[in-house]
Xanthine dehydrogenase family protein molybdopterin-binding subunit
Amino acid sequence: MDEPDHRNRLDAMVQGVLGTGMDRPDGPEKVTGSATYAHDGQVAGMLHGVMVRATIAKGRLEHIDAQAVEALPGVRAVLHGDRFLRNPAQGTANEAPVQGSRDIAYLGQPVALVVADRFEQARHGAQSVTLRYSEESASVAPDAETAEVPDKKQSSAGDLAAAMDRAAFCVDAVYTTPGHNSAAMEPHAAIAAWEGDLLTVRASCQMLKYNVNELADALGVDPEHVRILSPFVGGGFGSKLGISPETVAAALAARALGQPVAVALSRQQVFEATMRRSETRQHIRLAADAEGRLTGIGHEALVSNLEGEDFSEPVTQATPFLYRGENRLIGHRISRVNRTCAGSVRAPGEAVGVTALEIAMDELATAAGIDPVDLRRRNIPERDPGEDRPFSSHMLRAALDDGAAAFGWENRPQGGARQGDWLAGCGMSSASRVNMIGKSSARVTLHPDGTALVETDMTDIGTGTYAILNQIAAEMLGLPPARVKVRLGDSDLPKSAGSGGSWGASSAGSSVFLACERIRQDIAERCGCDEGTLTLKDGMAIADNRARPLAQVLAGAPLQAEGEIDKGKTSEAVRQATFGAFFAEVAVNAVTGETRLRRMHGSFAAGRILNAKTARSQCLGGMTFGIGMALTEELIHDPRDGHIVNHDLAEYHLPVNADVPQLSVNLLEERDPWANPMQAKGIGELGICGAGACIVNAIHDATGIRVRHLPATLDKLL
Ligand code: MOS
């Protein structure tokens, strides 16, 4: 099969901007507070809405004392009824949010909105509401027996049971991971304003083209009449892929009252009423021969979600291609529970799936007496074993080698060595994440004054989109970055794939690349040369040994072009994935069971790196969430009614500075010609995919205790 015909164009470019660790152009606005996040965009005459939550797990809302609350000072209205009663479905598809009835499906579900002149009045009103229900018995815990078995996410090959019987070494164990909250810094908020039948909403969203359709569908209006503004997003981590209840509520209230309405969720409401990552139960079986070569892999997952929700955590997404082994069994079950809607959170699938698999691989290494890095090396497949197709490029071995060298794996401290009260140990794990791209377009305008404007409805969720789109345009058009302006986060701009699933940079970036390519062709024509021989640098067009300022070439009129990328056929011919390797050293206190991470290293490959600094930051963020997954993060549901007990950042323990030692990251040189014209793959989520396992494996090295149920809290180590 031939590689796609993408010239290695960016490698031949001369501006020298792309790939550098250029600072974010939006950085100063963010750190000085002038960047307007959703709730900062104060609109004249706006009212405030506060949502009211259901206090039962399942049943029907029979009565709400709206009149009494409407009599409170400042309260304008208590909005309730059919269109307020359910969380819009999460998900990346173009689906209608579930709207509907007075039926309550989980504790914490929004059931009404109190709107008042001032926020405090609305909050007081919301706290004063009395609700009467008819209650039904709820299923608040996942149940393997009654779980659904969907057609998707199941596969098998060969005979796993026979492979397990024949194996020289094997692992057969159950691993569990708890639910997680996305924990974006900026809570979900929306300000809605109607002008006639045109709606403008300032909201915190990841994927505007889908979000517009979801909102229009919820409201029963034409998507053409809906505009969403999301120029800055204070983190999404999946919770803003779909619209959340406050956005629908603000739009409905603004329509009902004829005035702009702002609705901001409290942190507790974010936990309860947006979404969660499903807890998982993973039965993993590994069979290996005497040399540690896998002959069988079984990975069967149980996850949960609300009745009727399509999404289910794709736990086994990377299992079919990560390692060799001819006998395979991939299974998936969904238990329907009365808990907050489950959706995509920080690398859905691999974050928890690769983590459990990599703990199991460590168990296999121990059982076989093989060095854990070596065990992985022996099991790297030549082709994608699940679908028998080649990899577009494969960097797991390179990442293992680079990471082992950078960490000093060969000379690591002896596992279990005691230093005072502390036991030291080291562990490692592989990283992998599928690579995706989505239909995306952008418009680029080159102005006669030698500045360029990049426009797309793409979002920057803290990932660095403003920086990389600037760099791509600057590189392609031969402009200093200060002469390029990037406009994002307005649904009226050309539609992009949005930010999610690590496809944002690849998709939106390629559309900017293609728009710039068309502008270059236009310039080449004007210069009378072939585009391949045209050099654009520092605002000059250089062709045939003649340099002319771009302003002169443009002769007073701007050049504009749109670029659009789509999946294309080539992406199905190959398996595209990113790879990496994690290494950690921990110390576990022999008296208290406390684990302190001493150091952690990650080596990653994701094709061309577009910005060395923001790519590294993405990896640091992923590794930090890996620390949380290994040691502290856990949604705790009350066994009686399923409500989330630890619904704030004081009780839901994300790693803080004191938990995170100096982390090191190496980004490996790679070009993936199959991925896109930039030969770059998505890196956003790679840093969490398996990260927790290196810490759990290090804990085993230090203590001999194998933790299979995350997080590895103190009680599990005593
Ligand atoms: Mo991501 S969890 O697909 O924003």
Notes: Residues 85-100 have pLDDT under 50 and may be disordered. The chain has three domains: 38-138+188-264, 280-436+572-717, 438-566. Residues 184 and 235 are 5 Å apart (CA to CA). Residues 206, 236-238, 241, 344-346, 348, 500-501 surround dioxothiomolybdenum(VI) ion (CB under 6 Å).
